[in-house]
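Example record

The entry below shows one chain as it appears in the dataset: sequence first, then structure tokens.
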Amino acid sequence: MPTYAIGDLQGCQASLLRLLDEMKFDPAADRLWFVGDLVNRGPDSLAVLRFVKSLGDAAISVLGNHDLHLLALAEGYGRAHKGDTLEAILAAPDRDELLAWLRRQKLAWREGDFLMVHAGVLPGWSLDDTMQHAVEAEAALQGAHYRDFFAQMYGNAPVAWDAGLQGIERLRVIVNAFTRLRYCSIDAEMEFHHKGAPGTQPAGWLPWFEVPGRKSVDATFVIGHWSTLGLINRPDLIALDTGCLWGGRLTAVRLEDRQVFAVQCPQMSHPKS
């Protein structure tokens, strides 16, 4: 059963369908892993949600920051951003069913040697730590009091993990790492402002996957989120956000043999929007 990991869709349904044709995707025989950010800024987030949901067990998706932003807005928290294209979902007759499905998706998915998250993990987390923290945050997102989380989700602090953290501060660190992380310090403090490619960041910051002594090195990470990183397909890391939304490509990697599939995408948004 081949498994194809696919980069950030962000509402680019037409590009997804062209990529699936390129891959000769068979929903009865193949599986798809989506690295998160199914929605927002692209033209057809509603169609993407309906399609991925319709795939059932043939698809696994982890939550990205744009997915969480949609869920928060739907509950009346946060504020709409310039460039958001979520109105069709929020006005759809099946919105409640779609949002309930989205809220049940994972923050991390581990299978064999692969571990998929949207953005990253903190260097001090082992693989077991990573999955335990994901389960903890998923329980908050899926539990009876999930609105309490969305009410306090936004924010950059705390910037570092401490096992003694509790409540919303603990959950915010976990979710920020899984859905927003790019750079962090040697001391594992997170930095959320710089989005450029490695080599352009301020002194003192490293890509999270390059921090010396990282405890999760025994897995191959499958990530999205970081369009300026481009495609990486190396033994320890598969990075799949190749900027479809910005007029780049939508990319998939077949995990069994690392074959790359990609389609060119029309520009739907500007990176500064």
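Notes for this example: The longest strand covers residues 249-254. The mean pLDDT is 97.
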